[in-house]
Design a protein that fits this description.
The chain has helices spanning 2-24, 29-51, 57-60, 62-77, 79-83, 86-110, 115-136, 150-164, 170-190, 202-252. The protein is an all-alpha fold.
Length: 253
């Protein structure tokens, strides 16, 4: 029951963030509804497709689609009012991320999968919707940038899976996982924690390549110079040998 309530709250919050993202890119009403739906239920759909679980959640519950379309249209009607609650949406998003991750693990477990597939399913459920939203809005997905987002989902999934192996009550397991996952995400937001960023500087790479070429050419020039010196030395030695031979011959004569 806890997860169901959190799931509904989370998909509504995600739908609103999706609609606002579409509005920032001046999309029409169809675009707004599509982005809202993909943000809210795209992760679960990707999970079900990857796991081969049909029909997908929104096909089983088409009322979710209708509800989310209404939410997206309400967002269009009062965007500036909803935009005031940015911090609240961040917190709801954190709760939603944890709830989605737990639901993803449950889904994979119900199909008989082990820990690796369960974690992947949980992460897909938690982050794929946001990835789809950002890609369609022509942005680098938030999850691929410095924020600890997917990391929270991974930790949540592993913790939930391991706690299920204990004798604890399932409701208590869900509550513990929610508290830990939400706290982790909240701390990451507050302290701006992030993973190391891989920054490939193309100009630096070209500069290093030019330096390597210059060093190679300098080395070749030195070798060529040494070769000339060796040849000159060899020629001088031959000349000296010839002079010595001529001197010996003249003495014999």
């Amino acid at each position: 029951m806890i997860l169901f309530v959190l799931y509904i709250i989370a998909i509504i919050a995600e739908a609103i963030t999706g609609a606002l993202a579409a509005g920032r890119h001046k999309m029409d009403l169809f675009g707004v509804m599509l982005i809202s739906l993909l943000t809210a239920i795209g992760g679960g759909t990707v999970r079900d497709v990857v796991l081969g679980s049909y029909p997908t959640t929104w096909v089983l519950h088409p009322e979710y689609v209708l509800m989310l379309c209404v939410v997206s249209l309400l967002t269009v009607a009062m965007p500036y009012f909803l935009a005031r609650f940015g911090k609240l949406f961040l917190l709801l998003d954190a709760l939603g991320l944890v709830a989605f991750s737990i639901i993803g693990v449950d889904k994979a477990l119900s199909l008989g999968h082990g820990i690796i597939v369960c974690v992947v399913a949980g992460v897909f459920t938690g982050v794929a919707g946001g990835i789809l939203r950002d890609l369609l809005c022509n942005k680098i997905p938030l999850v691929f940038q410095k924020e600890v987002y997917a990391g929270v989902s991974i930790v949540t999934c592993i913790l939930y899976y391991l706690l299920l192996k204990t004798e604890l009550n399932h409701t208590l397991i869900v509550i513990i996982t929610l508290i830990v996952g939400f706290s982790f995400r909240a701390l990451a937001i507050y302290y701006k924690l992030g993973l190391p960023v891989f920054n490939y500087d193309e100009e630096k790479a070209l500069r290093l390549q030019e330096e390597r070429i210059a060093r190679r050419q300098a080395k070749k020039a030195r070798l060529h110079k040494d070769e000339i010196i060796i040849k000159d030395t060899a020629a001088e030695v031959k000349e000296l040998e010839k002079e010595v031979k001529d001197l010996k011959d003249s003495k014999k004569g």
